[in-house]
Amino acid sequence: MESTAQNLFELAVTVNGTRYERTVEPRMLLSDFLRHELDLTGTHVGCEHGVCGACSVLMDGRPVRSCLMFAVQANGHEITTVEGLGTIDNLHPVQKSFQEAHGLQCGFCTPGILTTVVAFLEENPDPSEEEIREAISGNLCRCTGYQHIVDAVQLAAEKMK
């Protein structure tokens, strides 16, 4: 990452398997970079304080809040957004399970929950209901009582075995 004459930085990051090189302001948030520079609008920005989890993406396979990170902090790393999980014709098992178990309503929180759950199930392929609730506790949903989300995670765990 190099600083340019006008206090801009060269950024090289892999997002959803594609390498991008851009010149960015040092204070540009990762969420803004993804949404406005790469047009990956599945990363939602809710609270802008890291509380709601709607902006969660995976960095090197681990969930991070993209509204709390500067884009330059992702330099040299691999980012996966909800767009990188699957396609309309080939959904990721977690996406398919959310569809089948009605684990979403308005969908605003869903991308952050999906990326969080993907990482969680990779670490814990046979979670208890309590472990699931703990894993998604950093992702707020204003539409549900979370039971369908928990059901969807349990279904995804079964599908991924």
Structure keywords:
2 domains; 5-stranded mixed beta sheet; elongated; DNA polymerase, domain 1; 5 helices; alpha+beta; 161 residues; 5 strands; single chain; Ubiquitin-like (UB roll)
CATH topology call of the largest domain: Ubiquitin-like (UB roll)
Q: How are the strands ordered across the major sheet?
A: 2-1-5-3-4
Q: Roughly what is the average pLDDT, rounded to an integer?
A: 95
Strand tally is 5
Give structural notes.
With 161 residues, the protein is of the alpha+beta class. It folds into two domains: 9-84, Beta-grasp domain (Ubiquitin-like (UB roll), Roll), CATH 3.10.20; 93-160, Orthogonal Bundle (DNA polymerase, domain 1), CATH 1.10.150.120. The chain contains five helices and five strands. Strands 2-1-5-3-4 form a five-stranded mixed beta sheet, covered by helices on one side. The mean pLDDT is 95.
